[in-house]
């Protein structure tokens, strides 16, 4: 059932380039960038986990005067970026980019694939200019839908064995409270969470009933009640 529901938000493409995420994440990240940088003629950008390059291509099409670099570790990208790296994000990748600092780094749906989120954000901080901005997204495990999954499956929606097998290795769940701790400890001072990517497209009738029951039974004592599917952060 969830494979059918997930098809509502997965499986899209940009100009023939597969979007390997909930398409709403790409739309939101693009909106956040456009909102903040539309008047910038020059901007140094790194798409740190580019996948097929769909998001990087969207940036290059919309802002042709910007310098957009990509990291294509799995050699899947089908785009012509300014620079193309092949960095292992579990290693000290910032040491491989010595002479370049970025105004903006985009990390869409990569944190959950990595062994050490502290190590990753520390390296990202090293690659940003002093006032540089990081946009990062990762699955949210606190939603009502995820709580149903914890009860019935023993794990949140995008994790467990199915998340490992079907999502190309989801191994590290980073809830909101922990992400904030990691970000602050690695040098990011300001964080903003956006919650517009909700679980509604994923909910069937039976799941809605289960959520309704959980809210009745535990609603008053339940902490951090929300309906976010994906957490998207602005960090600087």
TrEMBL record:
The upper taxonomy is: Bacteria, Pseudomonadati, Spirochaetota, Spirochaetia, Leptospirales
Q: Which InterPro entries match?
A: SAM-dependent_MTases_sf
Gene Ontology terms, MF aspect: methyltransferase activity
Provide the protein name.
Methyltransferase domain protein
The record ties this protein, via CDD domains, to: AdoMet_MTases
The alphabetized UniProt keywords are: Methyltransferase, Transferase
Domain of life, source organism? Bacteria
Which biological process annotations from GO are given for this protein? methylation
């Amino acid at each position: 059932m969830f494979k059918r529901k997930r098809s509502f938000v997965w499986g899209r493409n940009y100009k023939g380039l597969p979007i390997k995420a909930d398409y709403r994440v790409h739309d939101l990240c693009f909106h956040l960038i456009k909102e903040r940088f539309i008047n910038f003629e020059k901007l140094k950008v790194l798409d740190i986990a580019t996948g097929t390059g769909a998001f990087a291509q969207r940036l290059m099409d919309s802002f042709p005067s910007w310098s957009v670099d990509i990291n294509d570790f799995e050699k899947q990208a089908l785009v012509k970026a300014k620079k193309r790296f092949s960095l292992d994000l579990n290693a000290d990748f910032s040491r491989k980019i010595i002479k370049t600092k970025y105004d903006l780094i985009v990390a869409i749906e990569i944190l959950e694939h990595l062994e050490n989120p502290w190590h990753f954000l520390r390296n990202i901080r090293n690659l940003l200019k002093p006032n540089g901005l990081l946009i990062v997204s990762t699955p949210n495990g606190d939603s009502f839908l995820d709580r149903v999954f914890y009860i019935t499956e023993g794990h949140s929606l995008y994790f467990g064995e199915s998340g490992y097998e079907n999502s190309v290795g989801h191994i590290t769940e980073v809830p909101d409270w922990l992400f904030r701790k990691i970000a602050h400890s690695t040098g990011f001072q300001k964080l903003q969470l956006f919650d517009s990517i909700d679980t509604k497209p994923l909910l069937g009738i039976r799941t809605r009933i289960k959520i309704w029951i959980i809210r009745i039974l535990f609603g008053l004592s339940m902490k951090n009640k929300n309906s976010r599917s994906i957490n998207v952060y602005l960090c600087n």
